[in-house]
Amino acid sequence: MEKVIIFDTTLRDGEQAPGASLTSQQKLEVAYQLEKLGVDVIEAGFPIASPDDFKAVEAVAKNIKKSIVCGLARCLKDDIEAVHSSLKKAKQKRIHIFLATSKIHLKYKFRKAENEILELARSATKLARNYCGDIEFSPEDATRTERNFLFKVIEAAINEGAKTINIPDTVGYSYPQEIYSLIADILNNVPNINKAIISIHCHNDLGQATANSLSGILAGVRQVHCTINGLGERAGNASLEEVVMAISTRKDVFKNITTSINTKEIYRTSRLVSTLTGFVVPPNKAIVGKNAFRHEAGIHQDAVIKKRTTYEIMDPKDIGMGASELVLGKHSGRHALFARLKDLGFKLGDEKVNEIFKRFKKLADKKKEIFDDDLIALVEEETSQRKKIYELVSLQVTTGTDIAPDALVKIKHKRRAYQAKSTGDGPVDACYKAIDKITKIKAKLLNYKLEAVTKGKDAQGLVRVELKAKGKTAFGRGASTDILEASVKAYLDALNRIDS
Ligand code: KIV
Ligand code: ZN
Predict the structure, then answer these.
(1) Beta 461-469 vs 472-480: how paired, if at all?
(2) I want to staple 199 with a disulfide (CB 3.0 to 4.6 A). Which of 98, 173, 223, 341 is the partner?
(3) Among 8, 10, 13, which is best to mutate for testing ligand 1, by the most ligand atoms less than 8 A from CB?
């Protein structure tokens, strides 16, 4: 069997998705889960980009034991040194350097000639190699780069010690056949290519990221860059769950190929990333969408009962979906709650766990059965906020079919409580207007979505909002058995992200 290395870039390219930013604590939580999932390489961030990014890479490097921890750098001394120092405590480390090579980037981004780029690739690889034995080099926009120049850059990087050559389809422009022939050309034309592993990094602008990655594997690629839920810049990156499940489901095509992914951790990881980033997984998303294994049509349901494989090419259990839905209730103790949270992939500090336990008890008083999704919603609330700059104290709303909605909202801000009253087009609007009066922030509501967290009349409502204020956009979430309270919590959560 030949192994395809899974290089996860959820914490770097994934986090570049607008609105998906994570705190370093949240990044660490995702990294622990990625390690449990079995990814070979975790790209933890771009240390030079911000002190926060540096801190996150440092924290991941210090705590992750099995996976290689990687940081991204441009071909610049300061970038490379920042990665080097952020990775000092890593058990296994990698420096990933990138440099655009396509004509359009050379002309408009760098205003540099090919020979200058070639020299930069050489010197940066050499510098990085002095700091680390494991160097990955990416000729950015490789798929739009003139072939002969691409071959020269790759050859130079390998000569200077790059162990992995990653081929990015940076703008998601390619089709599977093109990727296949590009990889074949690289194998046939770069004289020292046998000294490196070829990797692929596909974006999804034309919806081809997974297909392109798979085509790369068939052509000889032995490392794939991917992200959980396909998170990433613009339309995202190749999704880890799709690439891995395609390899394991289509053994007839990927005959001698294997990965080290524990597929049973896929669903849990997907949920965790969605929870922490606020990016909802569409119900029809392949592999991890809520509908991915649901059968609505009677004919399908009947056939699946008779023989599951009539309409299911994968077993949901293989990705950890529909595994035990242990129900907790008001008599469940701290121990049962902690065990369940751990099982769901959350690694929380004592302080957070105590806070969640208090909230759990309150919820259990209102709701007979607490499902996994209820717990996830609780953790979401407790961990999503960077800082609780604004916190809900109380809420009173009068509304009805013949009266204008009227809201009185009380909020804590810097240890002081403030309140304001407002009417609105509806009760949610009235609440939001009252909040705006208190915060004096002109926030624009871009999106509002309400869904039930679980089944039953006593189900919690989960509200997700997207706000624009102070030139930033942010997601916010709030859950409660009262949907107005959930709406206010979501709005404040987004404001907290904007202000932190
Ligand atoms: O899309 C891209 O080209 C990248 C590189 C940094 C690998 O993300
Ligand atoms: Zn990318």
Answers:
(1) antiparallel
(2) 223
(3) 13
Residue nearest to atom 6 of ligand 1 (CA): 98
Q: Is 204 in the pocket of ligand 1 (CB under 6 A)?
A: no
240 CA distance to ligand 2 centroid (A)?
Answer: 14
Q: Is 98 in the pocket of ligand 1 (CB under 6 A)?
A: yes
Instruction: Note the pLDDT of residue 428.
Output: 96
Q: Which residues of the chain have pLDDT under 70?
A: 322-326, 383-387
Q: 201 CA distance to ligand 2 centroid (A)?
A: 7
CB 12 within 8 A of CB 44: yes
Q: Which atom of ligand 1 is nearest to the CA of 13?
A: 8
10-26: per-residue pLDDT in tens?
A: 999 999 887 777 888 88
- Cβ atoms 432, 492 nearer than 8 A: no
385-499 carries CATH number 3.30.160.270 = yes
Backbone angles phi, psi at 147, to 5 degrees: -55, -50
pLDDT of residue 386: 53
* Cβ burial, residue 247 (10 Å; 0-12/13-18/19+): buried
Q: Which residues of 302-335 are buried (b: 16+ CB within 10 A; e: fewer)?
A: ebeeeeeeeeeebebeebbbeeeeeebeeebeee
What is the token pair recorded at 61? 């490097």
Ion ligand 2 neighbours, Cβ < 5 Å: 13
Minimum CA distance residue for ligand 1 atom 8? 13
Q: What is the pLDDT of residue 487?
A: 97
Ligand 1 near 201 CB (within 6 A):
yes
Query: Terminal CA-to-CA distance of the chain, rounded, Å?
Result: 48
CATH 3.20.20.70 fits 2-277, yes or no: yes
User: For residue 468, how far is its CA from the centre of ligand 2 (angstroms)?
Assistant: 25
Q: Looking at this protein, which amino acid is placed at residue 375?
A: L
C-alpha of residue 370 to centroid of ligand 2, in Å: 39
Domain 298-379 has CATH 1.10.238: yes
Give yes or no for a contact between 140 and 168, defined as CB atoms under 8 angstroms apart: yes
* Parts of the chain belonging to CATH 3.20.20.70: 2-277
> How many angstroms does the Cα of residue 168 sit away from the middle of ligand 1?
6
Q: Report whether residue 13 contacts ligand 1, using a CB cutoff of 6 Å.
A: yes
Which tokens hold the place of 151?
């071959």
Q: In the chain, which segments carry CATH 1.10.238?
A: 298-379
Q: Where in the chain is the domain with CATH 3.30.160.270?
A: 385-499
pLDDT at 324: 47
By three-state DSSP, how is residue 478 classified? strand
Kindly list the strands in the beta sheet with 444-452, ordered across the sheet, starting from the edge strand earlier in the chain.
Answer: 444-452, 461-469, 472-480
